[in-house]
Specification:
Keywords: Membrane, Transmembrane, Transmembrane helix. By secondary structure, this protein is mainly α. Helix content is about 75%, strand content about 5%.
Length: about 220
């Protein structure tokens, strides 16, 4: 008998599936799943067209690139607007805490950050670290705003100079500015998420160490 295989392993699978099924019953999770699927499908189609793996003419290619780009931009603009207050309010609170002396109001404001950042723990996370994270989020908001302005404010043209999609103004959109804004938006979001993920990982490791030490002492 192979004792390395837990005898209760098959029983865990239904439980995991049940958790997934239960989570999908939540409207919020269903909407999140749908949005993620749209992003993945649209992003994949955009990449395939840009790499010419889907053969189209110049005008059709520019048209579908514009369509898929606008879909993605619309989704990320909506997400940016929905999370706007969760970025701005903590950022303002952090600035206030950095320039104020510690008092009762200081502690209240410090705890209020947890309403917008449930990963935050004042025992482990310094204000300078928080400031760095939220500077990245603010940079993400600004770059997304810039990207949205470019995408919705200026029209797109194909290689032959034929207008593909008319927006607010007929002026051609600067592709370079689009890529710069997109690069800043993606890099700032990834950097902020990476910092938070690293902190959560370190806290998890510290918690495991404490648990192991307490079990040894017992």
């Amino acid at each position: 008998m192979d004792v390395s295989i837990p005898i209760n392993q098959p029983e865990n699978k239904p439980k995991n599936w049940n958790k997934i099924i239960i989570s999908l019953k939540s409207p919020k999770n269903i909407i999140t799943l749908i949005v993620m699927l749209i992003i993945c499908i649209t992003g994949a189609a955009l990449v395939l067209i840009l790499l010419d793996w889907i053969k189209l003419g110049d005008t059709k290619k520019a048209f579908w690139v514009e369509i898929f780009s606008q879909i993605l931009n619309g989704i990320f603009t909506a997400l940016s607007l929905l999370s706007f207050h969760t970025r701005i309010i903590p950022f303002i609170i952090i600035l206030q805490l950095l320039f104020k002396s510690k008092n009762n109001d200081y502690i209240k404001k410090q705890k209020s950050i947890k309403k917008y950042a449930n990963w935050y723990n004042e025992q482990y996370d310094s204000l300078s670290f928080l400031l760095l994270v939220y500077v990245m989020w603010i940079l993400n908001i600004l770059s997304q705003a810039s990207l949205t302005t470019l995408m919705w404010g200026f029209s797109s043209y194909d290689k032959n100079g034929i207008i593909v999609f008319s927006m607010i103004t007929p002026k051609p959109r600067s592709v370079m500015l689009v890529f710069i804004s997109l690069g800043i938006a993606l890099s700032s979001s990834m950097f902020a998420s990476g910092l938070i993920g690293y902190k959560l990982y370190k806290k998890n490791q510290l918690q495991k160490l404490k648990n192991s030490e307490s079990s040894i002492n017992i």
